[in-house]
């Protein structure tokens, strides 16, 4: 379920603060004189103790808001092979079915030759596709 920090707040490791909590922290900092243009603010401890957060977390929330202007953290891009389309995955599966011992380097060459991928692709993306995104289930790349 979670742990309790030394300030008394429940948290789950790796999970971000709720958007409501981030909004409350930012509003409090602005009310206490925080400058969003420069990021200047000195009283992180006061805000942190009010919301039972660590001063370090409070400072991270404030600096992220000043840098991006958004409450939500930026989404990570490394969540899969989104640049490979279903037809590309079908082509990779066809190649692996036709010749199961085909190396990832040869797969990469064939994909680059026959598939239209504007940004290009990498050997790791193809290996990830073979491991996780084949219609017949997970495959080994070897």
Strand content: under 5%
- Helix proportion: 40-55%
Strand order of the largest sheet: 1-2
Largest sheet: 2 strands, antiparallel
How many structural units, i.e. domains? 2
What structural class do the secondary elements suggest?
mainly alpha
Distance between the termini: 39 Å
Number of strands: 2
With helices defined by DSSP (H or I, 4 residues minimum), what is the helix count?
6
Question: Which assembly state applies to the chains in this document?
Answer: single chain
Give me a quick take on this structure.
Helices cover 49% and strands 3% of the residues.
Summary tags:
single chain, Arc Repressor Mutant, subunit A, 2 domains, 6 helices, Homeodomain-like_sf, mainly alpha, 2 strands, 142 residues, two-stranded antiparallel sheet, elongated
Write the layout of secondary structure elements.
Layout: E1 3-4, E2 10-11, H1 19-31, H2 44-51, H3 55-68, H4 86-98, H5 104-114, H6 123-132
Antiparallel strand pairs: 1-2
How would you explain this protein's 3D organization?
The protein has 142 residues and is an all-alpha fold. The chain has two domains: 66 residues; 48 residues, Arc Repressor Mutant, subunit A, CATH 1.10.10. Helices cover 49% and strands 3% of the residues. It has six helices and two strands. A two-stranded antiparallel ribbon has the order 1-2. β1 and β2 form a beta hairpin. α2 crosses α3. The chain is elongated. The mean pLDDT is 84.
